[in-house]
Amino acid sequence: MRRIVHIDMDAFYASVEQRDDPALRGRPVVVAWRGRRSVVCAASYEARRFGVRSAMPAVRAERLCPDAVFVPPDFTRYKAVSRQVRAIMERYTPLVEPLSLDEAYLDVSQHRGGLPTATAVAEAIRTAVRGELSLTASAGVAPNKFLAKIASDWNKPDGLFVLRPARVESFLVPLPVERLPGVGKVMQDRLAKLGIRTVGELRAAGLEALQQRFGRWGRRLHELSRGIDHNAVQPQRPTLSVSSEDTFADDLPLTALEPHLRRLAEKTWTAGRRESRIARTVVLKLKTADFRVLTRSLTPASPPVSLEAVVRIALDLRDRVDLPASTRYRLAGVGLANFADPDEVIAQSDLFAQPAS
């Protein structure tokens, strides 16, 4: 049986700002640029008491908490602190899978450090983070990844929750279905129409009924309702995609997006060049003034081999958008996806290049 720990830093960006500037301690801190187009990157717990949350428009956060201190994000500093946190984790296991700058899974089934239990490892990490970095982290300990992630949120902030195998069923049954990974608002509404609002009700629906209704996702829902998750901790997760996006100061028509798409494509191309694998797909993302999100993608016969090729495809994808000319756009993004090993790309190219016999 696996022993999985999920470490989640508490209000990470805001906590780093409060740590580094004593004048911010105890005050409601919002990490965001000011302005009507900006969104909240993070909020301290003092700001959260007023209802401020990540991804919220900054102007709404300002209305909810007029006394909030707005601090522009410093991602270079946050990344440096994140590396320090990861170094602490790797003292106890090489099996660390970062999910973002502020959270990670650890498989401590066979750990270093001479500690007797996964709980002791989680406590040791939290103690080191507090003592060495003057920050706090919450932790969840469980037999698999998705349970550990739920557990780490149970006693936030600066808490630890241990979910032992014998308690999994009694813990899951009363939870609302939206606590399960992958169950967003749309799936929550679909399940509610079937009279399913708790994990216990989802479990009672049975595998066959869920598969008939939701296909392969129905099987996954059934497994989650029973606390089953076979996904292993992956220390070296291969890159799935890289992207850059920007929210404009003013809503723009489609015809005005070219210079922005060129700039975003250049940032994405630069990031993609750092990867050892090759991207085969170009993705265009657009968000309209009324927050409708559109994505278009193209996988050409040969992977794009230059910045200009990425720009050309992104502009072609833009031209395929069939909304009215009066539509205005508040955000655009350009991404590279469908990464593959060079040998695989070459082999496929050779296959399609061979003449038919």
UniProtKB/TrEMBL annotation:
Database matches in PROSITE patterns: UMUC
Record flagged with keyword Metal-binding: yes
GO MF entry, a single one: DNA-directed DNA polymerase activity
Main location class: cytoplasm
Any Pfam family hit: IMS_HHH_1
Residues holding Mg(2+): 8, 102
Signal peptide region: none
Cofactor: Mg(2+)
Subunit structure: Monomer.
Protein name: DNA polymerase IV
Organism: Pseudofulvimonas gallinarii
